[in-house]
Amino acid sequence: MAIVRASLRMELSPHQLAEVLDILSPLVSRTLAAPGCLECRLSRDLTDGSVLFEEWWAREEDFHERVLSGDFRTVLLTMDMAAKEPEFRFCLIAEIKGLKDLARLLGQEE
């Protein structure tokens, strides 16, 4: 079983930025309420001003259901508003580790 991380990064003109944020902002809470959604975020990169829409799904099947949804089609439609070619990707993650694992790697395990 793999966790899925999907992300869409877009550079937008100032006019398109406001419109895209208006479109994507309401999707965050609806996405979070969907079965299998672990996390959903909409943020801006402070270095280049791009918008990042990111989702985490518990299972590939949950992500597949998401891809077939009307809300996901709305996300994809915003890609046409990007000033440059948008970057969309999804990753299948077999395992996620945390601070205890980092401490072990650093040789600080207690």
Automatic annotation (TrEMBL):
InterPro entries: ABM_dom, Dimeric_a/b-barrel
All residue ranges annotated as the ABM domain in the record: 6-73
Xref: Pfam families: ABM (PF03992)
Gene3D superfamilies per UniProt: 3.30.70.100
GO molecular function, one term: monooxygenase activity
Regions crossing the membrane: none
Keyword set, alphabetical order: Monooxygenase, Oxidoreductase
UniProt name for this protein: Antibiotic biosynthesis monooxygenase
Lineage of source species: Bacteria, Pseudomonadati, Thermodesulfobacteriota, Desulfovibrionia, Desulfovibrionales
